[in-house]
């Protein structure tokens, strides 16, 4: 279940540096989350850090990218292996 940023985003810049997978970047108008990099912080933290810091609560689960906790952990493992390669 990758997360997504809705159009309620106020571009406050607090979510991007909190993402341990570098999945958040500035899009055309608002910040965006790359579903291929988002693990909902599985492997890093108990809760998604971007959700914790968002002042307008505009980061829900992306219904187009539903993943189990096991799949998120597998993605985390793959991303970490790519960082060291």
Automatic annotation (TrEMBL):
Keyword terms: 4Fe-4S, Electron transport, Iron, Iron-sulfur, Metal-binding, Repeat, Transport
4Fe-4S ferredoxin-type domain residues: 1-29, 31-64
InterPro entries to which the protein is assigned, alphabetical: 4Fe4S_Fe-S-bd, 4Fe4S_Fe_S_CS, PSI_iron-sulfur_center, YfhL-like
Family annotation (SUPFAM superfamilies): 4Fe-4S ferredoxins
Signal peptide feature range: none
A GO MF label: metal ion binding
This protein's record includes keyword 4Fe-4S: yes
Any one of the GO CC terms: cytoplasm
Protein name: Ferredoxin
